[in-house]
Model the fold of this input.
Amino acid sequence: MIRLIWFELVKTFTRWRTYIGFIAFGIIVPLVVLGLKLGGEKSFERNLLALLQNDFIIGGNVLNGWFFGFFFMGALWVHVPIVLTIVAGDQIAGEGNAGTFRFLLPHAVSRTKIIISKFIVTLIYTAIMVFFIGGLTLGLSLWAFGSGDLLIIRRGILVIPEARLPYHFLIAYGLATLAMCVVSSLCFLFSSLTDNSIGPIIATMAVIIVSIIIITLPFALFQTIRPYLFVNYFDAWHKVFEDPIPWDVIRSNITILTGFIVLFFVTSVAYFSRKDILS
Amino acid sequence: MYIALLIIVPALAMAQARPDSGTHSKQDPREIFHELLRPYQTLNDYTVTIQAKVIMPALRIPDFTATLYFKKPDKFHIETRNFAPIPRNSGVFNPFQFDPEKNRIAYEHSENLDGTRAEVFRVEPRQSDSRIRFYYVWIGGSPKRILQMENHSYKGTKVLVRPNYKYVQQGVEKWLLPEKIHVHLTFPEGVRSPDSTSLSVKETPFSRGLSGADDMPGEGDVYISYSEWRINTGPDDRLFQKNQRR
Done:
């Protein structure tokens, strides 16, 4: 099984499309940091601290690297799934499209083992991508804006001391990885249904966009559907930055997100095991 | 006789009822404020370490320490790694804040403030860019000092400041400087006008936690302790380039 995973890892990481996400974020993040450094920081300060600055003089490095690391995490939510689907959507559909399943499947390895190894590689890629984006945004922001306490503005203002921040961010990236694994799993499921890797990418993004619209609009019907949509639990990472940390809510979110991953994976296995390989 | 009594008795009763409203300060208010300034005429700058505790439901921050640099007439610089919100017009000690040349000062009344006789003045900054509409300043004690101050901002925030002083000896000079202050802030009740955000649910996984602070509700307290005063050390002017306004 390990050899199979290794084989899939080599296949995935020798395709240039795997690096599209790394290249895209490798360009976008430094550009945004540069924009912030060249004056964008001031507009943040005006918007976020306007209310406080009426009555207080604000000291300290408020808009620091941790703050922008946190900002990037919130801002890149909708964009990260796009790059994840590029790889996840190609895992099964790509082989179907290339016609390589006909050579692969007659061998002694079972279909289930093949799909498990492909799924594990998809999850590994997802984790690497999230931690790459996290490391890049946080590393560059800390380098450009220095360190300090983290200011969070949500239902008032909460300040988390600098010493506790590495711990908070590590857990947050872990939870973000879990949320993104749901996206990859869904795309992986769509990939098992088709032989064209563009389809799973579009389908996954369509599901995410429709779900976002549903949870954003304040209609009673939509708000009833909301708990059944996986995007509703995407912000589990954000709860790590609350005080006190709602561990019971985080545990429940982890269970639900894991449930979605298992559901999508089991459905993929069930469908792929019975699938006629025609090309 | 009865008529005379009818006139005199209510007049005496009214005089009793109004606390000291009839006994105007004998001194010119401007002179009193000049007197307050006099001991600090040779103070050109100071550096002090502050430790602050903020108790506000809408502002949950850890206690912080900062070094505060001040230079005459109103330049200051705060140095700290922490997030340090310091109440405006009260947290940074500025002996020249109520300079009679820059403010309109009027005597209000006299009253007892925790057993100390205090004269209350209304001070209105003359500068058009001031965030403060007016102050009430309680002056009393010996030597005369500010016992209490209440400022009313244009935005509606009311801030009550109560300082405790101590003498700080530096070389041959002795300065009366704040040791601790208690600042009580009362924020105005804000009315948020409907905007485009009312068309969407505020709390979603995509609201990013950066939607900007809503109005600061209710009240709050800030306690600041001052220590390690260093007077007239002549800090570099470049230090004040970043945040140098009142």
